[in-house]
Amino acid sequence: MASPGKKSFALRLDPALYQALERAAASDFRSVNAQVEVLLREALAKRGVKVEASEPARRGRPVKESDNG
Fold it and tell me: What does pTM read for this prediction?
């Protein structure tokens, strides 16, 4: 399942390329999906294509609203 706000799509890769992505992701302590995203952003930046910075994912429990009004 895709994260909220993320676009999902099927991507067919050569098995050797996928294995290389797995190795690179593991050495950077990332998932393959995150590694692909990083590499795509780097490639676009190298070509001078600007990508808007997305809002970072929220982590942890939501903050409770206090009733101390």
Answer: 0.70
